Amino acid sequence: MDITHCHYHPAEPATWHCAPCRRPYGDCCVPLNADAPDQTPGCPLCRRELTFLGAANSAQPFWERLPSFFRYGLQPGPLSLCAVLALAGMFMPSSLLLWFLLFSLATKYLYGVIEACSQAESRAPSLTSAFFGEGYSLFFKQLVVLLVAAIPLWLARGSETLYLLVDLAIMLVLPASIIRLALDKELSAALSPVQVGQVIGAMGWRYLILFAFLFALWQSPAYLAFFLGEGVPKAVLLPVMLFFSGYFSVVMCALMGYAVFQYQGPLGYIVATEDGADAYPEAEWRRRVALIEAEVRLKEGQGDSALDTLASALERTPEDFQLNERFHRLLFALRARERCLRHLAHYLPLAVRANPAQAATAFLNGRALQADYLPDDPAVCEALAVSLSERHKHREALSLLRNLHRRAPDYPFLARAYLLAARLLAEGPGDVEQARKLLAFVQARYPRNVQSPEARQLEALLTRLAPET
Ligand SMILES: [Zn+2]
Ligand SMILES: [Zn+2]
C-alpha cells in the first residue's frame, strides 16, 4: 500500500509534513513538548509549523484487521445492545412510539461506536452510555437522510436501469454520509455533497474496499434469515434477526470508525496515533529537537547550520553529554580543526565520566587533527589511558601518561597512573625492563603505594614475563 515514510528514516511511517520543504517526517523527527501539548511542532529544516498527517501512515489499514471488528462486537456493551433488541423482538408491544424510542437509542449507541473507534478506543462504549447525553435525534436525522435519498429513487422509478444505477449510487455514498453524521452530528453535513465527498476523497479508492466490506456485512443478517427462514417460527426468527442485526451493525460501525481513524489526517479529524507519540518535558524536548535538527541539516548537506543548532543548544545546557558528543563528531567530520580541539577541552572531561569508550574515540580524533594532542587535565589523561588500554591502544595510552609527574606534580593519583603505565609497557611493547624501572620509581617515590593491589599485581606480572631477571 502507498504509505509515506519519514524522509530521513525510511523505516518510520510519516506522521507530519512540511509543505514548503516538501518533506514528510515520522515521529522519529518530531518530538513533542509535554509542557506545551497544544503547540504545533516545527519543521527540523525550516522551523515553520508542520501539518499533522494523523495515523494515515502509521495505522494498520482497516482491511488488515477485520477480525478485530468482529471481536469488538463481542464486548459487553455491543452484546447488551443485541440482547435488548432481541428481548424487544420477543416482548415489546407493537407500539410505533416504543420502537422509535428503541431505535433512536440503538442509533445513538451505534454512532457512539463510530466515534469511539475513530479515536482508536478499543473498548466499546457501555450500553448505559447511550442513555445519557445528547444524540437521540441522530436516529431522526438518519431517517431524514434516508428519506432524502429516496427522492432520486422515486424519480428514477420509470426506468429499471436508471433505478438500479441510482440505487447503487446511493448505497455507495451512504457510508460516507453516516460517517459525517457520526462525527459532525449535523444533518447538513450528512447531506452536503461537498462534506460527504470529502470523506470519499480522503480515502480515495480504498473507500471502495470499505464499501465492499460494509455491503457484505449489511447483507449478513439477510442471509442468516434466508437460511433460518425455513421451518423457524416467526416468533423465534424476529428476535434472532434483531440480535444479529445489532451485532453486524456494531461491526460495521467499528469498521467505519476505524477507517476514520486511519484517514484522520486527510479527513481533518486529527486525534492521535494509537499509542500516542512520545512527549517530553521542556528541557528534554529542546535537547531532542536540537539533536534532530542537526541530524536533518547534516543529511541535507547543511553542516554549518547543523553546527549552529548544536552550538545554541549547548549554550543552554553546556554539560549535556549527548549534545556535546554530537557536536564533537560534527566538528570532526567537518574537519573544523581549531574549533574541534577547543571543544575537546570541554568535552573530554565530560565524556570520560559519561562514556569512557566515546571519550577514547574523541581523543583519537583529536590526535588525528594534531599529532601531539594532549589534554591538560591529568585525571582525564589517566581515564583516557585506561579506556585506550582496554582497546589495546597501548602506545596512545602510554603517551597520555608520559611525564605526568612533571606535567601535573600535584595530581594525587600519580602512583596509580604510573603503575598503569608500567603495566602498559610490559603488556604492550613488552618492555619489561622499562616497566621494572617505572615500578621502582613509583616504589621509591610513593612508598605508601608499594603494597597496593595494583603494585602487587604488576610485580607478579613482571615476574611472570621475565622470571630470569
Ligand atoms: Zn525521521
Ligand atoms: Zn520545512
TrEMBL record:
The chain crosses the membrane at residues 79-102, 136-155, 162-183, 203-228, 235-261. The keyword Transmembrane helix applies. It comes from the Bacteria. Keywords: Membrane, Transmembrane, Transmembrane helix. The keyword Transmembrane helix applies. Coiled coil: none annotated. This is Tetratricopeptide repeat protein. It comes from Pseudomonas mangiferae.
